[in-house]
Write a structure and sequence with these properties.
single chain; alpha+beta; Immunoglobulin-like; 4 domains; 20 helices; IPPc; OCRL-1_2_ASH; Inositol polyphosphate-related phosphatase domain-containing protein; IP5
Length: about 725
């Protein structure tokens, strides 16, 4: 599209009140962390769904979007296409909708399930009244995991977007990192979801396709390297007219537990809101820029003793907090109905928690909103305005060219000696120095896989008013197996001149990102019957031998330390609480210094840094060639003996030694099938995450998830046989 044409489209958008007919609809949005409980068969969630209008009448919403977190994943349900648990919650939601709206209204109201999307325990349903069915188009869903390696789905977000009449709507359901002191991690979870979630009306090939996303205002096309001649659109979260973001965001109240409980007992919670971490982070513009949440008039929704009204009395005695929230954002705060009366685009009717639903340690939260939707367009009036804008286009061509200034000048991002797992950042300020509103985005200059590790917060596109400015923080997640990166980022300005940002990164990979044969040799002292825990070559001696088939001494040191631990519990290590609070940077730094005494670190820290080392290997521990042989015959998928025999035959040298050392380490701690079936809800979730991360670290991403899981379980179950 030429620049004059783009200016006409922008002008047409700015004057849409003159040719657009608006209409208000009701939207119900809810969030509920169900604490790994099964969907209760004998109760409904009516209090969560039934909200009052301003006239104290039961309101039948036009759209219902409900998000769950921590749905029951017990019993070893690690195969992600198993929809049994998902279907149980869908059935409960269906029955609740029918009970709330299908039987108690003068006219029969029916809903249909527009879309559902799940990421492990995070689940989102979007329902629409059946009379709107034909007006729901361009329906798409997406998910972004933010757990370990950025792939574990215990934390992350899911989304559904669609066009409702003429307005684009997006619903996000998320589950952020837990823990009182994990505000930064929660912020990172938000930033990752906001910047990387993308929707498309075509097939999704890989994350590389998202890199080539451009703003939907210019009808972003599929990756140009694709042979598919069909043009597909892409949408990021911020492209939508209306956004509702709900979930267990896990932000806490930064105040002593005793004071919080005292304030709750006195029903004096307004001062507590000033200490609410989410509100504080929003004021600092660290998260949810442009989003709004009405005053909270309900008590903190976490953490309760299940089936009671009592806040946590367990040994951990957690501080009550508003972890469960619903926020919203609209491109335009107000519109003119019939081009006359100005109304809010989104008006909160009710925002409350359902205190009578008590089977979880959270209380459900829901909001009812009156949303002004673009109902229809007057094509005749639209064409008249378009003609006016075309006539004015040449006259204002020079004035309408947006210009920006960027600071620092020139923008040069240089990160040096970046270590594995570092996340360096670079602050950038974009100033609108022109005479018109400008829109810009940050994108790569070439198809580079490195760009997926670049996080821009807030996420583009950026719309900057005249004389206004936009602050952007550009960070990089250092998880690449590279020595350096030299890229050009494009600060693309709609209708204006682009700016260029250089990105130069040098990595200090240390022991990460190597192949096993690139580590220093491993030596053994036959006199002391001990390994020599040093990378320095020992003095020549007949007692000192090089162990050419043994793994690097770093791996041996970690495994030997773990063997001496009595608390090597896979379910505990991979529990949400442990993973969310884990900090492996200190042990990583010690590894960089080649100090191999890990006795001061926790078992979880030692095990997870071991997993990081496996994940960072240049080639997976089980080579792609061997993986292909294991799955060359689909019948071998369920033959654990066959899978192990292939590994015994094919694995050689250091890889063979390290793999079977790992299996021996795990065999005494791996739960049996009977133990898995008896696990409680939270342990079942940890088991799923354990399988996912172990399989990915050993096989990398060559196989699909189901194959990785099947292979690692085959090996572990074979080792468990007497």
């Amino acid at each position: 599209m030429s620049s004059p044409s783009k200016r006409v489209e922008i002008g047409l958008k700015q004057r849409e009140d003159e040719y657009t007919q608006y209409k208000q609809y009701h939207v119900l949005v809810g969030t509920f962390n169900v604490n790994n409980r099964q969907a209760p068969p004998n109760i409904l969630l009516k209090q969560w769904f039934s909200q009052l209008t301003d006239k104290d009448e039961i309101c039948v919403p036009d759209i219902i979007a409900v998000g769950f977190q921590e749905i029951d994943t017990s019993g070893g349900a690690y195969i992600y296409d198993d929809k049994r648990k998902e279907n149980e919650w869908q059935d409960l939601v269906n029955r609740t909708i029918q009970a709330c709206y299908g039987n108690n209204t003068k006219a029969k109201v029916e809903f249909f399930l527009l879309k559902q999307v799940r990421l492990m325990g995070i689940l989102l349903f979007v329902y629409v009244r059946s009379n709107h069915k034909e007006k729901c188009t361009y329906v798409s869903s997406a998910s972004v995991p933010t757990g370990f390696f950025g792939i574990a789905g215990n934390k992350g977000g899911v989304g559904v977007r669609f066009l409702f009449y003429e307005s684009s709507i997006c619903f996000i359901n998320s589950h952020f990192a837990s823990g009182d002191g994990q505000t930064t991690r929660r912020n990172n979870d938000y930033q990752t979801i906001e910047s990387t979630m993308a929707f498309t009306d075509g097939p999704t090939y890989s994350l590389k396709d998202y890199i080539w996303y451009t703003s939907s205002t210019s009808a972003g096309n599929l990756n140009p390297s694709s042979n598919n001649t069909t043009s597909h659109q892409w949408w990021k979260i911020n492209d939508h007219d209306i956004i509702f973001w709900c979930g267990d965001m896990n932000y806490r109240i930064s105040q002593p537990n005793e004071q919080v409980r005292q304030a709750i007992s006195e029903r004096s919670t307004v001062p507590l809101q000033e200490k609410d971490q989410l509100r504080c982070e929003m004021k600092l513009q660290n998260v949810f820029m442009g989003y709004y949440e009405p005053p909270i008039e309900f008590m903190p929704t976490y953490k309760f003793d299940p089936n009671t009204e009592v806040y946590d009395t367990s040994e951990k005695l957690r501080t009550p907090s508003w972890t469960d929230r619903v926020l919203y954002r609209s491109k335009r705060l107000k519109v003119k109905m019939n081009n006359e009366t100005e109304v809010d685009t989104i008006k909160t009717i009710e925002y409350s928690s359902a205190n009578e639903i008590r089977f979880s340690d959270h209380r459900p939260v829901s909001g009812l909103y009156a949303v002004t939707i673009k109902y229809a367009c007057d094509e005749k009036r639209s064409n008249q305005i378009r003609e006016e804008l075309n006539r004015m286009s040449d006259r204002f061509e020079n004035e309408a060219i947006p210009t920006i200034d960027v600071h620092p000048r020139p923008p040069e991002i240089k990160f040096t000696n970046v270590r594995y797992l570092d996340k360096p950042s670079y602050p950038l300020t974009i100033k609108n120095t022109g005479e018109c509103v400008c829109s810009c985005t940050i994108q790569p200059s070439s198809l580079s896989p490195s760009f997926q590790y670049v996080i821009c917060s807030p996420a583009p596109p950026y719309v900057i008013d005249v004389k206004g400015e936009q602050h952007v923080n550009i960070s990089f997640n250092a998880r690449l197996r590279k020595e350096s990166i030299s890229e050009i980022l494009i600060l693309h300005v709609e209708n204006g001149a682009d700016k260029f940002i250089t990105l130069d990164i040098t990595f200090d990979n240390g022991p990460f990102g190597l192949a096993l044969n690139e580590y220093p040799p491993t030596f053994y002292d036959n006199d002391t019957k001990k390994y020599i825990y040093s990378i320095e070559k020992p003095a020549t001696s007949e007692h000192i031998v090089e162990m050419i088939n043994d793994p690097p001494i770093l791996y041996i040191a970690l495994i030997e330390t773990l063997k001496d631990r009595s608390d090597l519990n896979m379910l505990q290590i991979f529990s949400n609480e442990t993973q969310d609070s884990l900090d492996v940077i200190p042990i990583r730094d010690q590894i960089y210094e080649h100090h191999y005494d890990f006795s001061k670190y926790s078992t979880a820290e030692i095990f997870m840094i071991f997993v990081h080392l496996l994940q960072s290997l240049k080639d997976p521990l089980i080579s792609f060639e061997i993986q292909d042989k294991i799955f060359s015959n689909s019948a071998q998928l369920n033959d654990s003996s066959r899978a192990v025999s292939i590994l015994v035959e094919q694995l050689k040298g250091k890889e063979r030694n390290l793999f079977f050392r790992l299996l021996v380490l795990l065999k005494n701690y791996w739960p049996t099938k009977e133990q898995i079936e008896k696990t409680d809800d939270e342990a079942g979730d940890a088991f799923n995450m354990c399988i996912d991360i172990l399989a990915l670290s050993i096989f990398h991403e060559h196989l699909d998830r189901t194959q990785r899981h099947a292979c690692i379980l085959a090996c572990l179950n074979e080792e468990k046989k007497p």
